[in-house]
Fold these 4 entries.
Entry 1:
Amino acid sequence: MITLKGAEVSAKIKEQVTEDLKKLGGTIPTLAIVRVGEKPDDMSYERGAKKKLESFGLKAESFVFPEDITDQDFKEAFRKICEDEQVTGILLLKPLPKQICEKDIDRMIDPKKDLDGISPENIAKVFAGDPTGFAPCTAEAVIEVLKAYDIPITGKRATVVGRSMIVGKPLSMLLLKENATVTVCHTRTADLKGTCKNAEILVAAAGKAKMLDGDYVGEGAVVIDVGINVDGDGKLCGDVDFASIQEKAAMATPVPGGVGAVTTAVLAAHLVRAALQQAG
Ligand code: NDP
């Protein structure tokens, strides 16, 4: 089985970002990372995103708010960030605390700065196959992995386990745009094992540690693991039991070192694209 390495895909994306950056004539775009509270997962993602952006020659600035900020105060602050001309793009770390209406925030974000595709306008563009929109970075990262390794998508049976608005649903639309025949699975799927086994491209985005073992993988399948979980020993792991699919899958992404590294590279690519679009 070939291991699909996120770092290699990220390096390819960096080449393109470096080229695109030259078109901005020396202007360095700035990402605003908006975080409410001190959740370790958010802080670790924020550190990773900042490191990646800086290594791509881009800027990132954190806007941090207390966990108990009121809905009104947060909306006021968020509006200012959206309107700030120094801010090229925005990454909002979710979920937000319960007192903040997330749907309102999704509608408030300027679609031109919405790098992770949470606004209704960008969601609609992803569903319409309109390339001017921003898809959620993780969903796009899966497509980038497949393309970087020249894995054919057209006509392939692709199964996505998970139907969230941030991964499963947009990813199924992106795969459809690439002419895959897409099946989306979830907790009510009757024959999950059989459906997964039938896939030529299997994407795991359920958020359940090692739930897909070798029994869920067909001979020669390409397996992309989006999951980021912690196993019983406290170690980071994906939704796929990587060891048990070695004899079945042709290729697979590891966790860590797979899709996660590509997600932040896509974020960087989105930031530069936003800057170019805003510059007209
Ligand atoms: P959600 O919890 O929002 O969605 C999980 C989805 O998986 C749901 O649609 C759920 O079905 C489905 N699901 C859960 N358990 C099962 C099961 N046993 N059988 C079949 N379907 C199941 O998670 P996210 O989409 O936000 O994230 C998914 C994973 O991806 C997480 O591990 C997350 O940490 C990771 N992630 C990774 C990123 C990266 O950069 N690599 C970025 C974002 C997320 P139902 O709808 O029926 O409840």
Entry 2:
Amino acid sequence: MPTAPTAPMLGDIRHDWTCEQIEALFALPFQDLLFEAQRIHREHHAPNTVQMSTLLSVKTGACPEDCAYCPQSVRYDTGLDRESLLAVQDVAAAARAARDAGATRFCMGAAWRSPKKKDMDVMVAMIGEVRALGMESCATLGMLTREQAQELRDAGLDYYNHNIDSSPEFYERIITTRDFADRLDTLEAVRAAGLNVCCGGIVGMGETLHDRARMLQVLANLPEHPESVPINQLVAVPGTPLADAAPVDPFDFVRMIAVARIVMPASFVRLSAGRESMSDELQALAFLAGANSIFYGEKLLTTGNPDVSRDRDLLARLGIATAGGNGALHA
Ligand code: SAM
Ligand code: DTB
Ligand code: SF4
């Protein structure tokens, strides 16, 4: 006998979120929202555990794109020295140091619109070095064709980071050199190659609450949820068009993490850029809201991140252990 359709429950893996439903989550009293987020977190993840990735900019500055938040765009004078692609052995040494410091994933970023053939050969070699250290590998190199995504996968790449950054509607106000559909095309190519997807965005660029809800709606309604969802707080860099953007209300930032946790229950939600300026208490709230991964190491790509000693101290004070993306616990 056919059973009557049941209403979806909070905590179900769904791909049919309406924007109104997501906005309703944002409108919950703060305590109710955090309670739901933490409850759902515990249904899908080991509590009191975070995964740590270390970033390295393997090619810095002089990017042809005009992303208004980014210190690496060639169009803004941010005082950044332009650097050519790093040598493979230097990247291998940085990955080894990151592993020895406790990171389980090494993420290589390049300020490209998309990689060229000769860049791909070097990236393949770098990925091989990271995998040989027993670490998970991640790269963020701009737009990829299906063939490039497959080449990276064949080289042993585990994750590809490519953020949608904001809502489709707000996107064109922060980037004019590519469009939202380009981002989705690359995400599709990454998925088709069998790579894990790391995709999120930025809070604090002047977007509305509706834009934040729309961004999460797009992510949650992808055919598969990204395995990793970085939520960045804008690092307002002097010289970029967003240098004077108004700071985000810390509780609104925590709400963003909590709603991401609820709409993508099984994904790792990464408390990403912006931690250097966050208090320990705010970071603790973000973990309570369901964040379970961080970038670890003194630098993000070009801007600062908390010192390793501060992070170790914070995690110890909160009783949080570190774990690999596969859930394997480390010391
Ligand atoms: N060029 C590639 C691309 O755009 O996909 C990869 C590197 S890019 C720096 C990776 C991501 O870093 C961006 O999509 C954005 O979400 C984040 N990001 C860049 N600058 C930032 C800033 N000032 N504050 C917060 N997040 C930032
Ligand atoms: C992501 O979402 N955040 C990271 C990573 N993916 C590549 C990058 C943050 C960059 C912050 C500005 C900078 O350091 O240049
Ligand atoms: Fe270039 Fe990426 Fe920065 Fe945009 S975010 S300017 S594509 S490095």
Entry 3:
Amino acid sequence: MSTKFPLDHFEQLQTPFYYYDLGLLRATLKSICAESKKYGYKIHYAVKANANHRLLNEINAAGLGMDCVSGYEVQCAIDNGFGQNGIVFAGVGKTDWEIELALAANIECFNVESVPELEVIDALARKTGKTANVALRINPNVDAHTHHYITTGLDENKFGIYTWDLENVLNVVQRLKNVNLIGLHFHIGSQITDMEPFRELCSRVNELQKWFESHGVKLTSINVGGGLGVDYSNPDINEMPDFASYFGTFHKFLELRPGQQVHFELGRAVVAQCGSLISRVTYVKNGRQTKFIIIDAGMNDLIRPALYQASHKIQNLSASGAEEKYDVVGPICESSDCFGKALLLPQTKRRDIIAIRSAGAYGEIMASRYNLRKFAPTYYSE
Ligand code: LLP
């Protein structure tokens, strides 16, 4: 039985729903701010992880900027007051209206991923008599050692400018009049729990800084992206990532020039642990080799296990005592609608309440209406 959750309250509610612990979110933000302030780092929240308005209020109040990857996210940043804390805009496929919206909002920086994109930003900025600040998103060819769907910094990925093309890109950027090159941007992947890939990223940044310096370019902004992972197996023991050692790694290994500002784009590390998907057991069914717990949440509510073979801790909040092995599955007509196989859980019965933990990042935001199901509602700890 868990004391973390208000089970009596949950029993009154229709399931499934997302439940957010705002106290934990606040504590996480406090730790991020305290540890990053030590080095004067600037944090942009990667809103792709979760755009829930109550969470955004807390994140905005903590003073984070926003990292966006679509015009809709830029609009969300503006609507939620993130403008004054700095909006950065990445993405390989920014369309004209998205660029125009960001130009009109005078965002802090476009993280540019190709030559044709640079040319379009320049042309659209010229039309409105503006100069856009740009950072070159460089694909550093660093292996993040994470799931291949969430690795972004390898030569085989579609993201960023490849280092072999740098000379050409620099020529273009210097020729264009309505873009102002202020820095470099990187993002090597997501759910990275070992500091080694970040250390490697720092040495690639150091090499690239030397290259730009030797070409007479002065950079003021170094954006190292996001990617810090969380502990999906032990969300109660490790309620938040070790931000001290994360920021400490960059402080130790990045060689900065005077006046340079380091930016981060954290998504998962901010919001993953404060969210749970709460569901009810519909049936317990005996298979030939396994017992199935069929719950009323499905892959449309949380797609991470189906899409990335991600494992989230699953708890039966209603039962305790002798355990049995179960596969926990949803009601969707797909075999991949499975949240966990051969899990040890207390003996489970119809109507027990199940919590799928660490679902605050890339959960609610990636939900769909597959099978014409409704989007799960949200509840909060306060
Ligand atoms: N910056 C850029 C340019 C990114 O592409 C991403 C994530 C982030 C920052 C934030 O990364 P984070 O700190 O959250 O790791 N849906 C997948 C994760 C996709 C991440 C995409 N990019 C999942 O559920 O694991």
Entry 4:
Amino acid sequence: MGGSEITYDVAGAVALVGLNRPHKRNAIDDALLEALRLAVARAGSEAKAGVIFGHGDHFSAGLDLAEHVDRSPVENIHHSRRWHAVFAEIERGAIPFVAAIHGAAVGGGMELAAATHIRVADETAFFALPEGQRGIFVGGGGSVRIARLISAARMADMMLTGRTLSAADAERADFVQYVTPRGAALDKAKELAARIAGNAPLSNYAIVQALPRIQDLSHDDGLFFESLMAAMTQTSPDAQDRLRAFLEKRAERIAPPEPAKK
Ligand code: 1HE
């Protein structure tokens, strides 16, 4: 697909989108971004959930710094807006995405992960925002998405001091939702994506589209929007079938969480 900078596969109902510039630590250049856009659009039409992961030893080293040095200010604005458009297709597109992260997820790599809906990191994962050291600023939506996930205070700390977060730090900071042993993030992400793909498509769509928008509304408007979404989903044939399945004891029961490992 669009050269080899992205790999694309579908396994069952799950699209697997792999960043594939391992020799450059999956640094994101224009070609990779365009291939990512195509892969995300294809996933939205062919799959019910997607996983984004990195080939090689890292998730992504962020912006391709070699390509970046030659841009004028106006070219920079257009470049940043292209990142915004592609990441918006992930965050508010047709299907939910899970990021499987190992090694570096830095700068634009962390911004890409922030555009997905669930982040799984293995123990080797680390997160950094070296923009301050590089003399630049985030441009892939991080000031909105990362700041909302981990707080603007934590993000400022990372950008100003170069503080690096481990997988465990990132989980404590609410950036990462699952931490796995080394090498297990992709399998866990696939397992979660397969589970997500089994949900009612309209509920998944409402979660992807409505939930982030509701966070941008006032309390009262948010509650009203919620009622509209509730009415839309709960009167769908899919919901009626699934509610009946529960009442007729054909649906899976909710299991309590597994006891924590000692
Ligand atoms: C790159 C990039 C890159 C590696 N652009 N070429 N991002 C950064 O500031 C992160 C910069 N990268 C690193 O700190 C390290 O490369 C890593 C910690 C990610 C990995 O270290 P390591 O030892 O495995 O690899 P390496 O030897 O540093 O790099 C291997 C090659 O990848 C080398 O190229 P080579 O031709 O000399 O082999 C590196 O130059 C190349 N490489 N990272 C270009 N980022 C929308 S705005 C977003 C703003 C940002 O993303 S700022 C953060 C940028």
